[in-house]
Amino acid sequence: MTISFSENNWHAPRRDFLKSALVAASGAMSASFVPTQSPAADPIVRNGSSHMKLSLAAYSFDRFLPKSWTPESAADAKMTLDDVVTFCAEMNLDGCELTAYYFPKDITPEYLIHLKELTFRLGLDVSGTAIGNNFCLPEGEARDAQLAMTRDWIDRAAMLGAPVIRIFAGSVPKGDSEEAAVERCIAGINQSVDYAATKGVVLALENHGGITSTAEQLLSIVRRVKPSPWFGVNFDSGNFYSADPYAEFEKIAPYAMNAQIKVEVSPNGKKQPADLERVIGILRNDGYRGYVVLEYEAEPDPREAIPGFLQRLRKIIQS
Predict the structure, then answer these.
(1) Measuring CA to CA, how many Å separate 36 from each of 33, 106, 228, 229?
(2) Alpha-carbon separation of residue 160 from 14, 18, 207, 252, 290 (angstroms)
(3) I need a surface site. Which of 89, 146, 186, 218 has the fewest CB within 10 A?
(4) Which residues have CB under 8 Å from 82's CB, separation 6+?
(5) Band of residue 87 on the pLDDT scale cut at 50, 70, 90
(6) 263-269: long-range contacts (C-beta < 8 A, 24 or more apart)?
(7) CB of 185 within 8 A of CB of 170?
(8) DSSP state letter for 267
């Protein structure tokens, strides 16, 4: 890997520009303007006609990609994010999801511009990105760092043109109560969504174990977040472990702002091949409009297995 970019101070000018633009826009807005999007606490209002586009998560190549890399540490990497983007173009996809874990340790504006140019030149959207935050942490430096990291990624998503960021709720600290952790999680989401709204980026909370292990746990958080069109659910079809994961998918689908599709499900914690037609059917029945992002986690080599699953998903969403 030879890409190297210099750091410069770009956050403050962008904040000042966007603040001025938002003030100007609000002054020009008609008093009769009424947002058409539903608040977060309600199922998303769509137009009644489902429409899906196909994307691939960089996480699908987790075993090959360097994490938080430097040019030296990534010298022998089997893949880079550039390779993921190129693979998505070769698969004739509509977009690619650029998971935060595989960006360099020092992320410069130049690197983000490079990725934005590369994806655009290859005819791809950056369908979204994904971070591994923890909003359950108690007050202190560690929690502040999580909130700051989330704000940084909101800025980066806006610069990349990524419309949505997959976020986590987090996990209950040892010796703490779930109730207290949930309260802190909701506060962290509210604070982050307020900032995301100023950048035009949606935050989508994933069903990802811990305090979001079940559909009811997830939705109990969603319904308590301040109403905002910039918040919703990241529908992940691999992360429920109850006797009937599909029944749980049906509960969260009406709130989905983004959909990550796994090729396996785990009823009662036991992995088995996913009924992809059924999963997509659940989204379609709720009129889902947006990206279907394959997030491959199965054992066979992703470079060999992914093309077949993409072909199958494409056939399903176009049927």
Answers:
(1) 9, 39, 12, 9
(2) 14, 16, 25, 28, 18
(3) 89
(4) 3, 115, 118
(5) very high
(6) 263/294, 263/296, 263/297, 263/298, 263/305, 263/309, 264/238, 264/297, 264/298, 265/237, 265/238, 265/240, 266/238, 266/240, 266/241, 267/241, 267/242, 267/243, 268/241, 268/242, 268/243, 269/241
(7) yes
(8) G
Question: Reduced to 3 states, what is the DSSP secondary structure of residue 116?
Answer: helix
Q: Which two tokens stand for residue 143?
A: 């929690």
Query: What tokens appear for 300 in the block?
Result: 């066979």
Query: What tokens does 9 get?
Result: 């101070």
Backbone angles phi, psi at 164, to 5 degrees: -145, 145
* Residue 68 CA, distance from chain mean position: 18
Nearest CA-CA partner of 130 in 5, 14, 295, 7: 295
Q: Give the count of beta carbons closer than 10 Å to the beta carbon of residue 131.
A: 20
Residue type, 76: D
Residue at 308: amino acid letter: G
Residue pointed to by tokens 């059924």: 278
- In the block, residue with structure tokens 């504006």: 109
Residue 216's contacts (CB-CB under 8 Å, 6 or more residues apart) are 251
Residue 196: strand, helix, or coil: helix
| H-helix or E-strand spanning residue 54 | strand 51-57
The Cα 314–Cα 316 span in angstroms is: 5
pLDDT tens digits, one per residue of 239-284: 999 999 999 999 999 999 999 999 999 999 999 999 999 999 999 9
β-pair type (202-206, 164-167) = parallel
Task: List 232's β-bridge partners, or say none.
Answer: 204
Own/partner pairs for 181-186, CB < 8 Å, 24+ apart? Answer: 181/136, 181/211, 182/136, 182/211, 182/220, 182/221, 184/135, 184/136, 184/137, 184/138, 184/139, 184/143, 185/135, 185/136, 185/211, 185/221, 186/221, 186/224, 186/225
Residue with tokens 């610069």: 159
